[in-house]
């Protein structure tokens, strides 16, 4: 992985095939909000970018501007027989960027840019069973910590 690519190839492949995720933010007073939203992986910055038609006028944009901490989940049910769930959770910091050129003309000029600090994935990589979580924050040694997490954490 490069310094900007914190996702595994399996995670990137999974995210590329999905259209919606859920963004959890916290208001300054502590109230939580969970919003379904579209997203794009930005390979230039190694971030998840969230756009919208009037994103700057939304509560999630104001929450990110005020608090800057988020969790973002993309998941689905791949099969019911056998039961197979898969997904990626991204925890980290986010910035509320204004006056940014949108990727499509119908989107507003604001973007929420998520900088991953911890990534947890499950069911997206046939090489790894169960849940897999790792810290991806920059470290002085330049390595990321990889660990298995128990279901339900």
From TrEMBL:
Protein name from the UniProt record: Pyridoxamine 5'-phosphate oxidase family protein
GO annotation, cellular component aspect: cytosol
NCBIfam families, sorted: PPOX_MSMEG_5819
InterPro entries reported in the protein's UniProt record: F420H2_bilvrd_red/Heme_oxyg (IPR052019), MSMEG_5819/OxyR (IPR024031), Pyridox_Oxase_N (IPR011576), Split_barrel_FMN-bd (IPR012349)
Record domain Pyridoxamine 5'-phosphate oxidase N-terminal: where: 8-113
Species lineage: Bacteria, Bacillati, Actinomycetota, Actinomycetes, Streptosporangiales
Family matches, as Gene3D superfamilies: Electron Transport, Fmn-binding Protein, Chain A
An example Gene Ontology molecular-function term: oxidoreductase activity, acting on the CH-CH group of donors
Positions of region (Disordered): 124-153
Cell division in keyword set: no
Native organism: Planomonospora venezuelensis
Entry keyword set: Oxidoreductase
Compositionally biased intervals (Basic and acidic residues): 125-138
């Amino acid at each position: 992985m490069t310094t900007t690519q914190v996702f595994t190839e399996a995670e990137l492949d999974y995210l590329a095939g999905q259209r919606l995720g859920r963004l959890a933010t916290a208001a300054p007073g502590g109230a939580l909000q969970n919003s379904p939203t579209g997203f794009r992986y930005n390979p230039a910055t190694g971030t998840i970018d969230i756009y919208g038609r009037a994103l700057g006028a939304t509560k999630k944009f104001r929450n990110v501007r005020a608090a800057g901490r988020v969790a973002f989940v993309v998941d689905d049910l791949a099969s019911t027989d056998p039961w197979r769930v898969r997904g990626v959770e991204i925890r980290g910091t986010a910035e509320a960027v204004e006056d940014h050129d949108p990727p499509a003309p119908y989107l507003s000029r604001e973007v929420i840019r998520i900088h991953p600090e911890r990534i947890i994935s499950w069911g997206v990589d046939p090489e790894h069973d169960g849940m897999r979580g790792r810290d991806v924050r920059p470290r002085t040694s330049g390595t990321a910590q990889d660990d298995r997490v128990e279901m339900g954490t």
